[in-house]
Fold this sequence. Notes:
single chain; mainly alpha; Rna Polymerase Sigma Factor, Chain: A; Arc Repressor Mutant, subunit A; globular
Amino acid sequence: MLTDEEIIDGCLEGKPRFQKLLYRKFAPTMFGVCQRYFNSPDQAEDALQEGFIKVFGKLHDFRREGSLEGWIRRIMVTTSLNYHRNNRKHYFLEDVEDLYDGSEDLMFNNDGFTMEDLMKTLRGLPPGYKLVFNLFEIEGYSHKEIGDMLDISVNTSKSQLSKARRMLQRKLLALYDNENPLNNA
């Protein structure tokens, strides 16, 4: 099995075999990353393809200081965000400077839910909620970083996260109540 270093070197030499190896190694994981940002698998696939075009075009910039997977993941997230940025109309409808009261957000707890349940529910969130939730909860960005990436205020980011958490909790609890036979007795 080839190392990431060997695959990178082969790609940089323009060898299609190594490009195929890089794609096959990371595409399934990166498709999962892209899917978190889109409702449609087709849109996620488009972002994945566009992201890999960027990966191959910028591979010479990879400094080999961190993990290749982390570097590719960042490109996929950025590509997905750019897609939304270029196609958004009203993701963040409210000026929430005054709406966010600083009260403690609900903590998200996924005990008892499958990953499939969570992903299906997450895909059903409004686009603005989904973007902020993914960036904060899954990718680990701060509200300031999210605000800079999405060109929104820190308070809007906090509000979108809070609303996303509440909506996810409501939807997952409703799913649990509907599927738990003890609750329907």
